[in-house]
Amino acid sequence: MADTIEEYQAALAENPADWEARSTIAQAQYEAEDYDAAAETILGAPELPADEDSIVFAGTIIGAVDVDQAHAVLDSFLATEHSAAVHTLKAELYEAAGDEASAAVHNEAAAGDGGVAVVVPEPEVEAVAAPRKLAPPGQGVAGATPAIAAQIGLSAAPAPSLEAIPHEEQEGDLLVDVGDGERQLIVGEGEAIHAADKEKDSKEKVLAIAAAIAVHLVIGLILYQVISAGPRPNPPQISVSSLANTDESSMEDVTVTKMQQRTASAVASAQPVISSTAFSNIAMPEVTEFSTELAMPAVGSDTGFGMSMSGFGDVSNMGAIPASMRSRCSMSQRMERLRKSGGQDRAEKAVRSALEWLTKTQNADGSFGAKYKTAMTGLTLLAYLGHCETPESPKFGESVVKAALYLMESGKKNDGMMIAEKGGNSPAYEHGIATYALAELFTMTKESGKEIPRLESVLKKSVAIIVKGQTDMGGWAYGYRLTGREDMSVVGWQVQALKAAYNTGRDFRGVEDALDNAMAYEEKIQDAEGAFKYGPEDARGKQSLTGAALLGMQVWGHMDSAAYKKGMDYLTKKVSKNPPLGNNFYQPYYNTQAFFLHEGQPWEDYNKNFQSKLLDAQNADGSWTGPNVGGHGGEDSHTMNTAWGCLMLEVYYRYLPTTEKVKDLKAR
């Protein structure tokens, strides 16, 4: 057993999943009133144990700095278990926030289970280890050694003996009667360890119940004083009796995944309110207890819409998400995909930081960028969706809604064409990117039963424009002109848009034929070396366009073609060992996806040489590059590259590996 904070920290560094070390450190930080550090310690856990005590412990600590995040963790647990302790904690969090109505609901739910301190038969099954309880302020860390307490400036509370504390609180672990009335088991990390003999003592149970009631009276007084004392309430001091579940099936080794830490800023007025934002690797039923109707901001007279969704994007609605998208909608799956494919853990934090920066730059009308607003809004919406941020996401949901409405309104104003700049070369880019984003949004929301009104009709028009704008050769030209110079860079966005439209499952006329024709076009513009040309009349292909062509072949099932193999050989030789980053992320955006979907040694080489380069280039504010850095985009380059940076780091979970036979690659 570790005796010092340094030893616990060393143990945690060696094994981030060591919940005992993590909870001990967090408890010490919490008691020292370093609430931010305590929350960060808990949120750094790969997974939260899915037992009642651990969830209450985590919710209490997280709630000190981020009440929404605490509710997310608690709601995820309540989706599968009824827990008086968890309901009580939610009630206290709501009371601290002044929401008496919600607090009353949870107090009633807790009382319906007999209150927090409920005597139940001791289980005869192994239970998951519980974290150490939080001691009231000023009493030090329960069970901490004097050495640990001294290091962090705490008063050391002597560890109570096994005989002096309630059964479920001994040594911070859950003791389980094995049936002979004398022997106990301390269960931790899934392994049962024999503990000291202990006679059953009914007097101790009575004292435990009385102590629990007294503590709760003290807690109520403390909370009242805290709420009245100042603008920022102190974190709730929670002490609850652990209730063992006698249902063996509930004792399975399951976990609830941690959520990333959010700032404690106020939620915008149009922010969706949902029941749960915590993601888990266990299936949970849909919970609608606290869903409220969301009045979306209307950009036009008939484009506003209202939705009431329940935890969309989390596991309670996982069945509503297409199989190929589910890996992006669970923290545990995201991290699993990230690590399996060679991603660094810091990539997840980088994505969140970038999304936060993008959100801060959103224009009042819902758009992003300064000049090519439709394209920038489409790219940013794709970045949100790549992280499973939907209209209901508590942190980014309002931005997603406003971005979608801006794109829809843009199409309404321009007879279906989603553009911000008329004329020139930009419309085909802007419209293709916007169609791609809205089609992906449609796919992620259609199965929820809460489709976005008018979105499908908007897509019908926008997809039809792309299909009708294809040239006889199979490519696309600027402005969707049927005569003129085809452009592989324009083709790349139309292929992605049409594939996204195909993934919706809706019968958008001409999509499959258009994609088949586009594949034939790409083969026509490949040069002898394997690169793909800017246009058919060019003598040689370009390295910067080869990734775009290969991605198109990958998503439309042409990876077995000779043109694909030749192109991938070319790109591997040119790029994998020394991938360029530069100030314009157009080429790496395509290359990253192409190598990831190809897999094997080319991906391993590329990822090893590119990922750190991209992560290290991120600005302190979460963005990449800056405005007017050269290349396409001009004054929008800052937004454009930040959105592309997100999409590149989301590739680990945005796509499933092709070896796992993604059904949506080309299901025909």
Structure description:
The protein has 668 residues and is mainly α. The chain has 2 domains: 5-244, no CATH class; 311-665, Glycosyltransferase. The chain is 47% helix and 4% strand. The strands form 4 sheets. The protein has a 3-stranded antiparallel beta sheet with strand order 4-5-6, with no helix packed on it. Strands 1-7 form a two-stranded antiparallel sheet. Strand 2 (141-142), helix 8 and strand 3 form a beta-alpha-beta unit. It is elongated. Helix 12 (373-386) packs parallel to helix 14. It has helices spanning 5-14, 19-31, 35-43, 52-63, 67-78, 84-96, 100-111, 146-151, 202-229, 331-340, 346-360, 373-386, 397-413, 426-446, 455-468, 488-503, 511-524, 543-555, 562-576, 586-598, 600-616, 637-649, 651-654, and strands at residues 47-49, 141-142, 156-157, 174-177, 184-188, 191-194, 255-257, 294-295, 306-307. The model is unreliable at 114-133, 135-202, 230-316 and 657-668 (pLDDT under 50).
Features:
668 residues; mainly alpha; Glycosyltransferase; 3-stranded antiparallel sheet; two-stranded antiparallel sheet; 4% strand; disordered C terminus
Pick out the low-confidence regions: 114-133, 135-202, 230-316, 657-668
Q: Look at the structure and give the CATH class of the largest domain.
A: Mainly Alpha
Overall, the morphology is elongated
Q: Per DSSP, what share of the residues sits in E-state strands of 2 or more residues?
A: under 5%
How many domains make up the 3D coordinates? 2
What distance lies between the first and last C-alpha atoms, to the nearest angstrom? Answer: 59 Å
Mean pLDDT: 74
Number of helices: 23
- Structural class computed from helices and strand pairing: mainly alpha
Q: Rg to the nearest angstrom?
A: 28 Å
Roughly what percent helix? 40-55%
Give me the CATH fold name of the largest domain. Glycosyltransferase
CATH architecture level-2 label of the largest domain? Alpha/alpha barrel
Number of strands: 9
**What is the strand arrangement across the widest sheet?**
4-5-6
Q: Biggest β-sheet: count, sense, barrel?
A: 3 strands, antiparallel
